[in-house]
Amino acid sequence: MTEALPLSPAADPPSASPPPTNGSVILRAEAITKVFPGTVALKEVNFNTYRGKVNVLVGENGAGKSTLMKILAGVEEPTGGQLLMDGQVVRFRNPIEAASHGIGIIYQELDLFPNLSITENIFMARELKKGIVLDRREQDQRTRQLLARLEHPMDPNTVVGDLRLGQQQIVAIARALAQNVSVLIMDEPTSALSQTEVAVLFKIIRELKESGVSIIYISHKLDELLQVGDYLTVLRDGKLQDEAPVSQVNISWIIEKMVGRNPAGFFARRAHEIGGELLRVENIALPRPGGGFYVDHVSFTLHTGEILGIYGLMGAGRSELFECLSGLHPEAGGEIFLNGKKVTAPQVEKRIQQGIVLIPEDRQQAGIVQTMSVSDNMILASLRRYTRRGVLSFNQAGRHVVQMIKDLSVKVSSPQQPITALSGGNQQKVVVGKGLLTEPKVFIMDEPTRGIDVGAKSDMFEIMNMLARQGYGVLFASSELKEVLAMADRILVMSKGKITGEMLSKEATEEALVAASAVGHGPIQE
């Protein structure tokens, strides 16, 4: 028996919704076509941005969403078609021209400067001055106000590269809020945020709407779209598929328009046999500079063929725990046993050789090398396996890469294709393939569905089911309650570096997980 994610109820959706006629259109993309060498990314696409509304844009990876947003933001110029703002034809040759018309954007892949402070990132190219002198005090004050508004009172002088991914996402949002925009494009703004942080962002979005700002919102989290959206546009294969008021659609309708098939069974836990103990973790502790712990003496077991989910808010210690298990923190205390034998080597390479591999949360920064091909990325972690007397066996590696591409259904024209030419979901499959080529026993996946579309999420869950059936131990973390409940055999909840809950998924509820994740955080804010 399989268990699928529940679909949100809604009124009966229209079979083919015409574009809404009510509301004022502030920005319109009209018959937009964009051709790249060998690829038609967009073909005669129309897109309406209604004034003071949240205009949702959905589609699978590769549907053309980000390309359309780059055209609206002046990053790309269209091959054909035109843009109209308040009914007047406009042309943006660069982001500065788009910004001069009040258009701002938060990119899916964060474009922050990791070596600069939060304040410097927020006011980059828009510095505040007293005469010709930089007004650092005023910039810091405004930064504190923005972060307080987002309920993240971080030190403005903190270097962005020292922040966790979710905190960097907050900085990107704060930078956008610091601009005086009339149209704000949000491309996957919640991909690294916890449920509580998403609620804060939605409150900010409501405030922006009330002040007349128009939001263009892209997300793969479909339940979010029904909460925050007013109008919804669906792209598929670079073409406009449909447009409708959010009040007239539901998740089933959205998925069917996106992928062209019925969504029933997309997210399902398949039957697999759980065996004996594979991994035992005892009192893993990672000290925090200045006192306290990122990971506070955590113990648990993982069995062969088991999918063990970890849920928690940002800062709960999930990623730090995974980093300890994979050897990234040799200063961590505690003991790890794999198949009953103590794991002693603290280096990442040694842990990989012993059978523990990590799929990191930040795919772009820690999962792939963007200047390399699909094939080269896939064999990076297993070069030792294909090297004899210092010579790399390209034939053997190539055969294994081709087979892995086939097994994981990676959509790629050639193994030599640049990794950056792939959609986010296919890039994630390459990262998974890289891990599998190391021949692991324990497969650790940190937010494996972050920033990928519903079809790619379904593929990722099928891969997890496949790994469990083949006897791997699968340990994964997710901020998505429904994903954890749908995929895990057993669930651990973390808060403040500790395990605060453990339950079988068939007995777990969203309420129980949220309550356990809030231990030590004070009362839950609605």
Secondary-structure topology with pairs:
Elements: E1 25-36, E2 39-50, E3 54-58, H1 65-72, E4 80-85, E5 88-90, H2 95-100, E6 103-106, H3 118-122, E7 129-130, E8 133-134, H4 136-149, H5 165-177, E9 183-187, H6 195-210, E10 214-218, H7 222-228, E11 231-236, E12 239-245, H8 251-259, E13 277-287, E14 293-303, E15 307-311, H9 318-325, E16 333-338, E17 341-343, H10 348-354, E18 356-359, H11 363-367, H12 374-379, E19 387-388, E20 391-392, H13 394-407, H14 424-436, E21 442-446, H15 454-469, E22 473-477, H16 481-487, E23 490-495, E24 498-504, H17 510-517
Parallel strand pairs: 3-10, 3-11, 6-9, 9-10, 15-22, 15-23, 18-21, 21-22
Antiparallel strand pairs: 1-2, 1-4, 4-5, 7-8, 11-12, 13-14, 13-16, 16-17, 19-20, 23-24
Keywords:
526 residues, alpha/beta, Rossmann fold, 6-stranded mixed β-sheet, 31% helix, disordered N terminus, disordered C terminus
**What is the CA-atom radius of gyration, in angstroms?**
24 Å
Q: Indicate the CATH architecture of the domain at 51-77 and 92-259.
A: 3-Layer(aba) Sandwich
| CATH fold-level label of the domain at 51-77 and 92-259 | Rossmann fold
**Shape descriptor:** globular
Which superfamily, in CATH terms, is the homologous superfamily of the domain at 51-77 and 92-259?
A: P-loop containing nucleotide triphosphate hydrolases
CATH first level of the domain at 51-77 and 92-259: Alpha Beta
Strand count: 24
pLDDT < 50 runs, ≥5 residues: 1-22, 522-526
Class from helix and strand fractions? alpha/beta
Name the helicity range: 25-40%
- Spatial arrangement of strands, main beta sheet: 6-9-10-3-11-12
Largest sheet: 6 strands, mixed
Distance between the termini: 35 Å
- Counted by DSSP, the helix tally is 17
Percent strand equals 25-35%
Mean pLDDT across all amino acids: 86
